[in-house]
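note to self: the first set is below, dont mix up w the second
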Amino acid sequence: MSALTAQLAGLQVVVPLLGAILSAFIRRGTLAWAWAALVTATTPVIAFALLFQVWTRGTISYHLGGWPPPIGIEYRIDLLNAFVLVLVSLVSTIMMPYARRSVAYEIDGDKQAWFYTMYLLCLTGLLGITITGDAFNAFVFLEISSLSSYVLIAMGRDRRALVASYQYLIVGTIGATFYVIGVGLLYLVTGSLNFADIAARLGEAAGAYPRPVLAGLAFLFVGISLKLALFPLHVWLPNAYAYAPSFATAFLAATATKVAIYLLLRIAFSVYGVALDFGSLHLSTVLYPLSIAAMFIASLLAVYERNLKRMLAYSSVAQIGYITLGIAIANQAGLTGAVVHLFNHALIKGGLFLALGAIVYRTGTIKLDDLGGVGRTMPLTFAAFVIAGLSLMGVPGTAGFISKYYLVVGALDAGKWPVAFLIVASSLIALVYIGRAIEVAYFRPVAEAVAHAKDPPLMMLVPILILALASVYFGIDTELSAGVASRVAEALIGGLK
């Protein structure tokens, strides 16, 4: 058993990668789903075991190929990425029962096995980005997850999914190019690709080559910001979420942008912040206005959207703004708010998009004007939507409130009371667009499209309810979410120069 435990870091990536390869040889959609569900279910077991090891014993260093770091590739797991591994693997596992009927409804039978192959490859890439301690290896996994994401989006039944996928491909390629240029500049000045080794050498390199070091940060920041859809680099996200298959939308919304945010945290705090004075990097100077603009502009765009998927897509851009605002605040409470919102938003938005997918499954439409009375014909589904929507607003007793509480405390601790006011004010805009959906669902006459609709089968309904109720549970019991996030923030702040 101890020999297996020692290989957990490698298995976290190898299991879904081998699962994807084997899935490519399956022809029947149901068998491909069963295999993908089984493979996915193993990943949170490994992730929780790694989190337990890190919590009790400290950072794990796993060497690949018999070459010790920094020469060889290292998987390095600390509390931050163990937390993200748990998030990505657990949310994916909760969603998998939902996929069977949703994917069968939206994707032709001969393409379903290919869909699950791409899903497992995307999961492999996301887990790989999170677990690796090597900058170039992170780029490789970034490309694996991105290329498979393009295919997942393109498989949407609406032909506009192809345009959305192509748009994402162009933007994603630019982002990946910027990232690899940044990694190349760091390699030139430090001679290393290992994150920990770069951090150890960067202070001396910055004294000799200050411009390449700062240029590297600029390229990395822009490249990652394109991936995480930081305003105004979010242009790919609304269409990608709106026209992708429902399961793909929920999966990507809950995991992909969160992993990109993790990568930004890793580079900003564990690489540059360890070696150089964090204030001199001026990251906060850039992130403050962009985050606040995302919170307000994206939320206002959501208010005027008639397509519910696009509405939630713009909402995601706004919520990413809250997370990056916590990074900009850069104190204990602010970073805790950023990390815990990374967790909470995955639950909230995953539940919301799954609920919309169930509505598509029963009604064939996602246009707000066609869904009058859907709350009465699909009571459990829309009740889950309302619960997750309340959490998105930050209503007390929900997970969203915990996130915004820490962000407000962080802003006040930093002496930025106007920022605290803006956090509260922007949250009220969510009340408008979520409230508009509730008004249509419960207070308008039953529309023709939803007249014969009913709640989806249990395999689809249970994951929706689990994520919705989790967004309440983690608003009450915050030990796993805010407790771990607080320790992560303490470690990140404590490591700054």
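second set (the one i keep forgetting abt)
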Amino acid sequence: MSITPATSSVRVPITPEEQASGPLAEQYARIRSASGLPFVPDMFGMLSSRPDLLEAVVSGYLGVFNDGALDRHTKELIASWTSQVNGCPYCVGTHNYFLQLFGGSSELAAAIQSAGSEDDLPVDEPTKALLRLVSTVCRSAYKVTDSLWQQTLDSGWSSEQLFEAVFTTALFNSITRLVDGLGLGQSVAQSRTSTMEPNGG
């Protein structure tokens, strides 16, 4: 297995798509079909040496982005904001790209890269309330109190939507840690700084 130059910072082997076979080739095909992309993003490729673990991540990813209580725009917003809270510019860039594909403005994408809190974002008050919940799950999930949950419900979201938002946040907390822990985040030159550069990986 070889590591391509674009991902030379990754600490584990990445199997190129043209070399994939068996279960790995099946997972790669599943990713391309679900994402609509003509390639497999590096985030999935870095798990290629363990197709069983890749399958778990792909299943979670597809579970989030299939039809549900939240629309795709909101889910991508959660993914982008979770990445910003966790200081992962690689993932911020990736999900800002998808956020804009699903209706997010370039102004919002730019704000996510530099915002210190959800209150700095050009979104409505119900969305800020949802992102406060997201931020709390990212930083200290045990601080999600009944009061915070109720405040978010009172802002206009349903309990089903909050459940999905928490799951999405938890999944992308895991993904940002995989990206940084396995070295993919280092492909962004200024990783973990206040200046976050988008990356379309």
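remember for set 2: Residues 159-181 form the longest helix (23 residues).
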